[in-house]
Amino acid sequence: MTSEHVKCLIIGSGPAGYTAAIYAARANMNPVLYQGGQPGGQLTITTEVDNFPGYPEGVQGPQMMQDLESQARRFGSDIRYGLVTQVEFSENPGRDKPHRAIVDDNHEITADSIIISTGASAKWLGLPSEMRLNGLGVSACAVCDGFFFRNQEVAIVGAGDTAAEEASYLANLCKKVYMIVRRDEMRASRFMQQRVKTAPNIEILYNTETQEILGDEGVTGARVKNTVTGEETVLAVTGFFVAIGHKPNTDIFKAYVDLDDHGYIITEKGSTRTNIPGVFACGDAQDNVYRQAITAAGTGCMAALDAERYLVTLEMQDQEVVH
Ligand code: NDP
């Protein structure tokens, strides 16, 4: 196994990771960033991004991630293909006990500071038609893609707070929203349930499962089944949203870093510090609420600044040892 030591290791390559890399590189932290299994993250599977400030005409998600990557490279960030498969965080880190990460099971990196920006992955129903039409009318983000379906009929699957919130968002844009709920009740908070139940253009279909999303080049409908009566219906929708939860990509850190009940990394209020000194978390891996590219980028900036301050304290400790 090969081995190296770095000042700042960034794990993950969405807007959070690349922004952290831009700031860390400009602060002479010589960041090394590993892109993970999906370089560019969730935005590489969306189409147009219209809500990221600075792109007045909108931008394709993959293009925006290439722009962020180029900007990070321009300042000298070392951006590499590779998946961090294992970590070992030091409880009492210092120069003699750095944090450790293994890349692709064959390369060891020790690091003075680590920024986690591994994001979260949307959960999907697992239907072949859902995968085939992903980005062609099937989406896991109403705030990102709802605009493309204004004045049209859409469906959204899920019954939690996210689904209720996104259904309300879509109801403001679309002619009609079908909310597909698999049980006879919703999980969302009472307030959010009230909101969707009273919206004139949201129709809630309880005890309903999606059998297939229809269409070739784009969505033309969804075949759903009432699990009580067995009746099948085709909903004439052109957009199909899935809001059945997200899974933060934090499994490899859970032995060290404090996570909440849903697996999101807990950071100190107002900072990106985790419970481990020298380990910082940003983006969707620690954000269960906003989950936007711009908020991820904002926390990426915070993580680099927090890591920079941390590295200064390490240097001061070194100087005390020398004197
Ligand atoms: P949740 O896990 O709370 O809800 C997921 C929903 O998806 C459930 O209703 C579940 O159904 C349904 N579901 C899961 N799998 C399937 C499937 N295969 N087919 C159909 N339906 C399925 O996720 P959320 O993203 O909604 O929320 C995550 C957390 O974030 C929660 O704690 C929530 O309260 C919080 N949140 C808070 C917000 C706020 O305060 N404004 C906004 C958004 C989220 P079932 O109920 O049958 O299990």
What does this structure look like?
The chain is α/β, with parallel strands linked by helices. The protein folds into two domains: 2-121 and 246-322, FAD/NAD(P)-binding domain, CATH 3.50.50.60; 124-242, FAD/NAD(P)-binding domain. 27% of the residues lie in helices and 27% in strands. It has seven helices and 19 strands. The strands form five sheets. Strands 1, 2, 5, 6, 7, 8 and 19 form a seven-stranded mixed sheet that branches. Strand 11 (153-157), helix 5 (161-173) and strand 12 (176-180) form a beta-alpha-beta unit. Helix 1 (15-26) packs parallel to helix 2, helix 1 (15-26) runs parallel beside helix 7 (293-322) and helix 5 packs parallel to helix 6 (190-198). The longest helix has 30 residues, at 293-322. It is elongated, with a radius of gyration of 22 Å. The two termini are 36 Å apart. The model has no long low-confidence stretch (mean pLDDT 95). NADPH dihydro-nicotinamide-adenine-dinucleotide phosphate binds next to helix 5.
CATH class of the largest domain: Alpha Beta
Round the mean pLDDT to the nearest integer and report it. Answer: 95
Total beta strands: 19
**Any guess at the CATH architecture of the largest domain?**
3-Layer(bba) Sandwich
Order of helices and strands: EHEEEHEEEEEHEHEHEHEEEEEEEH
Task: List key phrases describing it.
alpha/beta; FAD/NAD(P)-binding domain; five-stranded parallel beta sheet; seven-stranded mixed beta sheet; 323 residues; 7 helices; binds NADPH dihydro-nicotinamide-adenine-dinucleotide phosphate
